[in-house]
Structure formats: structure tokens, C-alpha cells
Amino acid sequence: EEWGCATLSTMPYDDTDIDSWGNESAWREAPYHRVYETYLMDFNETNPDSTIEMIKSLINGGTPVTFTLDAGQFSNGLSDNFIISSAEYDSSTYNHAQCIVGYDDSIAEDGDVGAFRVVNSWGDYYLMDGGYYWLTYETLKEIGFAIGDYCLHLCFVEDRIDYEPDLIATWEFNPAPTRMDDIITLGVGPHDVPLDMITPLYESDLNLFPEFMALDISEFQSYYDLNNDVLFYLELGSSNTPGIISSFLIERYISGVLQEITPESPDVPSTTPGYVIGTFMNLDHDVKVDLEVP
Predict the structure, then answer these.
(1) Do 140 and 254 belong together in one domain?
(2) Which residues does the UniProt record annotate as the domain Peptidase C1A papain C-terminal (predicted)?
(3) What are the respective helix, strand and coil percentages of the chain, to the nearest 5?
(4) Does residue 136 sit in the same domain as residue 69?
(5) Rama region for 155: left / alpha / beta (φ>0; ψ in -120 to 50; rest)
(6) Alpha carbon distance 100, 117 (integer Å)
(7) What is the pLDDT of residues 152-181, one digit of tens each?
């Protein structure tokens, strides 16, 4: 919800790279595609056909739906064609997320009629049709009955339609620190007594952060409206491998058009852990010290 998401055209699937978080183009596109809300759907065991119809209704409205299955069943169903039927699927476990992007009531396989168009994250690898295959309605019901409502994780998101950020924070590392839990914080106001803060969520691991990152901080726009000289800051906590913040900028937009960019932070380069500040006014050292003191 905080970071947004780049499109496949900007960040194509690469089965040789499961660790990267995208280049600058992907990070700059992501703030325009933020989730407004996430919803979990019930699998109706009393009337499973109603669940099938609900998914089809969402697809008709342009909303994809995710679910889970046992990826070990791909070899059972996809070895002869790109359709997995309920006769071919035989598992009561789950280990892999998938995304339903379409459906066809005329698809038939092993007595099942009707199927969902599913996109996997493996591209052409492993019997996929360019990354896609068909899962019959009966197979989805079978999975739902086998693993239960909670484990099936039928999920969809509500987009921020035609969203355009007002403020975007960008920063660069050279070198980048390790991706530890919750060590990135963006704030507005003096660091010691902030007016507001954002600590965006992400999955930590032992890889390094990308060299370029961006975050929509439009939640801070009201503070800028009250005081155009308000301070912003980026704080990085401790990590296994420290890094250096080499740039920190705030970009201001109106209706998608860039209006201005803050001068480069006077604090960079700065070794992590630590924080750097930025503001739309020009700072000399004395002014910076005065503003940071509550």
C-alpha cells in the first residue's frame, strides 16, 4: 500500500533474478499504482458456485484475484496441455500464490466445463503458455474444499484509480545497506519532534537495498501547505551491512506535473544508521541547525 507497484512492462519477469527490487524506472512508476484497500474473499463451501460467480464478476470489472495452490500439481495437469482439471489435481496442501486474470465458460477438460485464466510467476518455464494456464472452476472448488477458506486466500485489491502523487521522496545509496526489518522512516518536521512519520513495510532479507528508491509521501502535503519551508527527513536504522545515503530529494507535483525539487540534502553523503534532512528552501549550516532544534 505504501510503495505501490511497477507494471510488468517496466519491470519484466526475470526467472534468473528473484532478489532485485527494480531499477529507477520501476521505482518511479510504482507510486502511481498504490493499493487503496485489500480484501479477502470467502470461499462459500455451502454454495461454491457463488464464489466462482463472484470471481468472474471481479474479472469482468478488470480486477484480478489471487489464490493459493500446490505447485507440485502442475506436472499432473500441464503435461498434456495448458489446462488443469479436477481429475488431474490431487492435493490438500498449498505452497504457491497465483493470479486469476480471465475466464472462459467454454473451456472443457476431463468432464469439467469452464475455467479461469491464471498467470504464474515463472514465465515460459515449466509447461506454461507464456506464463499462463487454465484452471477449471471445479479444480478451484476442489482446492477450496481441501485447504479451507483461510488457506485458499482469495484476495483482490482496490486500486487508487488515476492516482497522482503530490510529493515523492527519492533517495540513493552508494553503497546500499542490508534490507533489515523496519529500518526506513520518512518524516516531516524536526527529527526529534516530527509532525508525522511513515515507516513503509517490506520483506527483509540479507540482500542489499537497491541503489535508488522512491516513496509517495503525499500524506505530508498538508504540512507543506501550511509551511512551504517545512523540513523532511529520511532515517535509516542499523543493519548487518551499513551503507551510505548519497542523495535525498523531495519532488512536488500538481496534477502529475513536476513543479519543483528540493536542493540536495546538506547531510549527504551520510553513513547509516543515521538520518538526513531536506527542505524546499535553501539551507546554510546555521539555518539548518536552528531549524532542527525544537
Answers:
(1) no
(2) 38-142
(3) 20, 35, 45
(4) yes
(5) beta
(6) 6
(7) 889 999 889 899 999 999 999 999 999 999
